[in-house]
Amino acid sequence: MSAQPAKKKPFKKVLYRGFEIDQLLEKNMEEVVKLMNARQRRRFAHGISSKYDRLVKKLQKAVKECPYGEKPKAVKTHLRNCIIVPEMVGGVCEVYGGKYWNPVEIKTDMVGSYLAEYSLTYKPIRHGKVGHGATRGSKFASLK
């Protein structure tokens, strides 16, 4: 056997429609919107309100102010229908789900989707566990 060191596996480059995040950030908004799905293109064609621009600016500011290697301060928002654009990548957004603020760390593969897709509005139920009042015998089970 030869004494070659094991090759390190390179990081998997995350692409959106064949473009890396650096290339997407260089493009202007119209070119990025052309890469998105029909529903998102239609939404941008009808015009985007200034509240979405404010959210993007707050996220960019939070990323800029945080030290290197740390997560940025979360930005709270009710805008669940906000489409994730490349400028938002790297930020942390707390999305309101009706009762709780759900933290969402925005990554490259989320571009083109909605914030609401990463913030559930309900708590998933677990079937099969004994619960309080579920059956006649469950009144003897501990509630801890």
Folded structure, characterized:
The protein is of the alpha+beta class. Helix content is 26%, strand content 9%. It is built from 4 helices and 3 strands. The chain has helices at residues 21-26, 29-35, 38-45, 50-65, and strands at 75-77, 92-96, 101-105. A 3-stranded mixed beta sheet has the order 1-2-3, covered by helices on one side. Strand 2 (92-96) and strand 3 form a beta hairpin. The mean pLDDT is 87.
Tell me the layout of helices and strands.
Blueprint (H helix, E strand, L loop, with lengths): L20 H6 L2 H7 L2 H8 L4 H16 L9 E3 L14 E5 L4 E5 L39
Parallel strand pairs: 1-2
Antiparallel strand pairs: 2-3
| Fraction of residues in β-strands | 5-15%
- Major sheet description: 3 strands, mixed
Query: Would you count the extended β strands for me?
Result: 3
- State the helix count: 4
Cα distance spanning the termini: 58 Å
Low-pLDDT runs: none
What form results from the Cα inertia axes?
A: extended
Structural class: alpha+beta
The portion of residues assigned to helices is 25-40%
Task: Give me the Rg, rounded.
Answer: 21 Å
Name the strands of the widest sheet in spatial order. 1-2-3
Give helix and strand order, one letter per element, not per position. Answer: HHHHEEE
The pLDDT mean sits at 87
